[in-house]
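Morning. Coffee machine broken again, so started the prediction first thing and wrote up yesterday's gels while waiting. Chain of 342 residues, entered below exactly as on the submission form.
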Amino acid sequence: MHYKLFGHTGLRVSEVCLGTMTFGEDWGMGTTAEESKRIFEAYTQAGGNFIDTANRYTEGSSEKIVGDLIASDRDYFVLASKYSLYDRRNDLNATGNHRKNMMRSVEASLKRLKTDYLDILWLHAWDFTTSVEEVMRGLDDLVGKGKVHYIGISDTPAWIVAQANTLAQLRGWTTFSGLQIEYSLVQRTPERDLIPMAKHFNMSLTPWSPLGAGILTGKYNKGMIAGGRLSEKSPKYTDKNLSIAHVVTDIAQKIDATPAQVALAWIREKDKNYIPIIGAKREDQIKDSLDYLTTTLPKEEFLRLEEVSEIELGFPHDFLNSDGVKDVVFGGNFNKIEHRKK
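Came back before lunch.
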């Protein structure tokens, strides 16, 4: 296990983050506290120190289990949780990005986690009703009180994140140092705007669902399976995604790896600074995924994955990258000018 700096901060986090959405059985799809402990121990024995949870995960059970697991050495772990999603459906202010829910949710998370502070607080999803100013001022207040050390944002349009960080910089408030996004071989659309924006602000990228809800493990290659997360109506269950999964499986057989290891190795080869969030329902699953750290993905196989999963960047990216537009923008001198790295 190697370690990375979290965004523009000096915080040291492991190159793999443990996702704990499966800790707890409240949703009927998770795992017991005992199996959660085995998953946690496999991760920490491999050198992991970065734990990700949220107030909504398994109705709060995830935070309670995580709190128990890290209690003996709380300061060693980089603990991240989230706010925004509801705790109670019948309470209008027990959900959303606004200050009241922010403060209430963080206090509740701290109690469940049995800790005085969060290393990282993620805004879980943008609600399009709270102003950017209210959010950033509230988050800065939490940092000032010592309840939170660093902040990140998840599942939010790039233009809003850019606006928020720019406003915070101008006001002298804490800026987002991490961006959590869905990103995998079957979900590459963040390459259009979210990833370039994050790199501009020197934010860490922590991809969630790096195995595409399981489709990249190859278990759906022959059709639906009992107990799987996907159904035939799932937007991920498409001919293109299945073709990607078949290529992943083929490469895995060629290099003596598992499909999960190949899919994760592709993310590492895209950018070695990405920190994938890896979850599991069984100890053997987390061990299998962690073995991607020693999996070598040959260049020709990486390029094969790039080709089969390629997306169109769309407007204005494809337009601005066309030869005709570059000719009129640079007067025929595009290749003579030094360009900043993307």
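The chain has a mean pLDDT of 96. Going to sketch it on the whiteboard this afternoon.
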